[in-house]
Amino acid sequence: MSKIPTLNDLKQGQKARVNKIITKGTIRRRLQDMGFIEGSMVECLQRSPLGDPTAYLIKGCVIALRSEDSSSILVSEVI
Amino acid sequence: MSLACRTFETRVGEELFGIKIDYEREYVVALAGNPNVGKSTLFNNLTGMKQHTGNWPGKTVANARGVCRYKDKEYVMVDLPGTYSLMAHSQEEEVARDFVCFARPDAVIVVCDATCLERNLNLVLQTMEISKNVVVCVNLMDEAKRKRIGVDTYKLSKMLKVPVVGITARKKSTLKSLLETMSVIVDKEEKTQDFMIKYPEPIERAIAVLEPVVSRKIDHIDSRWLCLKLLDNDESIMKSIENFLPINPFEDGEVASGLEIAYKILEESNISKEDLSDIIVSSIVRQAERISKSVVFYEDEKYVERDRKMDRIITGKYLGYPLMMVLLFVVFWITIRGANYPSAMLARFFFFLEERITYFFELVNAPNWLHGILVLGVYRVLAWVVSVMLPPMAIFFPLFTILEDLGYLPRVAFNLDKYFKKASSCGKQALTMCMGFGCNAVGVTGCRIIDSPRERLIAIITNNFVPCNGRFPTLIAVITMFFTGYLTGLTGSLVSSLILTLVIVMGVVMTFLISGLLSKTILKGVPSSFTLELPPYRRPQVLKVIVRSIFDRTLFVLGRAVIVAAPAGAIIWMMANIHVGGETLLGISADFLDPFGKLLGLDGVIVLAFILGFPANEIVVPIIIMAYMAQGSLIELGSLSELKELLVANGWTLTTAISMMLFTLFHWPCSTTCLTIRKETKSIKWTVLSFAIPTLVGIGVCFIFASTVRLLGLIINT
Fold first, then answer.
1. What is the pTM of this model?
2. I need a labelling partner for B466 at 20 to 30 A (CA). Which of A38, B109, B441, B608 fits?
3. What is the pLDDT of residue B4?
């Protein structure tokens, strides 16, 4: 992949480490409160029947994000 | 603590929650916690109150207080809004933070979910930074046990250096240790806490410089925490400080110069102001992670997997939508089928009773008009509301509550979100729509879970497109009479449920259309970001739910029947019997409305019934019946088929029936809902629009339908 992968690039069942949130404002804080901080492991659980939003497993909780928001979270070590 | 200080806190309590607290006589205990951790259940069990609970984040939207008695002491329990953090990114977080910070409760119980403790610890740590009287209450221990998750509360208590109690909020017997802990901590002398969140070294140094200055100036708030907020340039807390305390820390010279030095320290370590916020948040999250790792044990990962498997079916690509339809259908089917028997029984009983009462009136030689108002007016409308409307309501409500407790509703929101995104609105609107099924007023209040003001208004205005509990018995009655009356038994109820499901789907589609239209016109904007939590599935307490909601619903409907239906019955009887210029008032009004009604495929009486039904939708059908009966054709009404005869005798056709259903689905919100909208939006304009939009949609849809039928020259007689 040439560009830096985001959470939105993960396929069902893939896991990755959160690197950076590139959005600002309230949603940034909200995501951080949910546990999306540098170093956290996230697993992509599944997409909704229509392809968006997507459910992620973070800190033992299932959080659904729309693609606009999940593509603002840069990840690494995709497995 | 000095008395003067407590007076101040009473004022804060009043300002934030509208509650008066007598700190002299009572202890104040705040319940904090993430959304959906069973806070309300705990609150109910401690105070004996009956706040509605449900398994989805943000269910409790109204602030509540209640009194709990334990060992001759009185505790005022304050149920704070459920929040993920106290960093004040939303109104709820601000309220929760301000209460803990300024009203200074004698104890703050932070309720946690044992099955996802790590995320909950984030809030625990944040609360501990503000208050010294924290009790950690790990709830849902039974769910954790079922999922083979072990939580070492003893070790957690050792690590956090605050009391930790494990409970199962719905089992009262497990609450004793919590009460005991609470009674001890409220009397605890205030002291500095042992546990502190450690921040990276430069930040600690900056705090060390600033803290002595701040603690000299403000003695009301934890100074370490306030220093962090000052460094973080948290405007929200500064506003609250200015509001509640007579000081603005930023305007104080000494604090300002302290801040300057502190910032220099940070600068030297290459920490910018933007970085600082991130570092503060992630320090707390990391400590939560560290603590969680040493107190939570997963004995068997497979049990956690169960929820994932259920999700893959319930929100699956192929099964997600069909399953939603099937569930809706099944719920309606049980409602329709189940309501038949009690309805018939109640109807028989009421008409038997009516005969007796009439006999009694004749016996005592009561005047005709008195019998008319009381029996033909008040009594009959009441009888109709109770026998036709109540049974479906009393059956639907618990069924729905079970789905809610199970945790299904957030999955509906997950499934439907893409449509909401297309309409530029919030996915959580699906949750408020679901609440609308029970009662639109509740649905409107529930819109508080939507943070964006624009999206919240859209959800409020369109909530009425979901027929509430008071409306779909009307739909059921019309469907049964005109569409499936000739089918008997099982087939009849299956077809009825199918039609009802389609009607509901129509309401949902209309919600999307109007939401999208609003987003493109008067509420222009792009969809805002949000996170939707899909909580763990929980086993509903089926029996308790059924007993509770049948009881509560019945009382509620009966109460409303007495307040609304009875006077409506009296009014309609009088209108039918007061003559003005040779015609009855009812006749005059119905005649006046008739051309308009005919335009919509209805008639004057139906329109009049909808208007008189403004206080409560469940009286619309009873009013129609009353009006027709009063106009002459007096027949004994014992069943729906007899009712149909009455309607047909008054000119009802299949077209009338369909128009009636459309108008039931799309018309103005009831008076309670309108008042709620006024309260929630604080605006006459939006209240008027919330009234006008569904009304115009209803008039438009009915007009198009009726005109099409007329144009096609179809006169369908049934």
1. 0.87
2. B608
3. 43
